[in-house]
Specification:
The protein has strands at about 5, 10-15, 20-25, 30-40, 45-55, 55-60, 70-75, 80-85, 95-100, 115, 120-124. The strands form two sheets. Strands 2, 4, 5, 6, 9, 10 and 11 form a seven-stranded mixed sheet that branches. It has a four-stranded antiparallel sheet with strand order 1-3-8-7, with no helix packed on it. The protein is about 0% helix and about 55% strand. The model has no long low-confidence stretch (mean pLDDT about 95). It starts with a strand and ends with a strand. With about 120 residues, the chain is mainly beta.
């Protein structure tokens, strides 16, 4: 059973940085897609970034609102996916979720595996 556990959330001021981590157990990263989603107060869940891992090549994607500020990465040796978030804004305040696909070689619209979420709060 795949298990995803996020960490690294917290409270920062505008312009600050946080790094989220997602540790995946019982999960082989190759030919898989993993992503970060967030749910802002009063809003639906939205994709922030994803990373498609095909052999030694990774294909990152970012939603427009975080492009240039967030960086998604993956470390096979540590079974960890990370999201480095810089120049944080109040509108980045949300619960952030890690998600993983079962290995179809592309990034789907819906992911079967989810973490429990971690809160990120950015104050002005």
């Amino acid at each position: 059973q795949v298990r995803l556990v996020e960490s690294g959330g917290g409270s920062v001021q505008t312009g600050g940085s946080l790094e989220l981590s997602c540790v995946a157990s019982e999960y082989n990263y190759n030919n898989k897609c993993m992503g970060w989603f967030r749910q802002r107060p009063g809003k639906g869940r939205e994709k922030v970034a994803h990373i498609l891992i095909l052999g030694n090549t990774t294909y990152p994607y970012y939603t427009d609102s975080v492009m240039g500020r967030f960086t998604i990465s993956q470390d096979n040796a540590k079974n960890t996916m990370s999201l480095q978030m810089n120049i944080l804004k109040p509108e980045d305040t949300a619960v952030y979720y890690c998600a993983a696909d079962s290995g179809r070689g592309f990034c789907p619209k819906t992911f079967p595996y989810w973490g429990q979420g971690t809160q990120v709060t950015v104050s002005s």
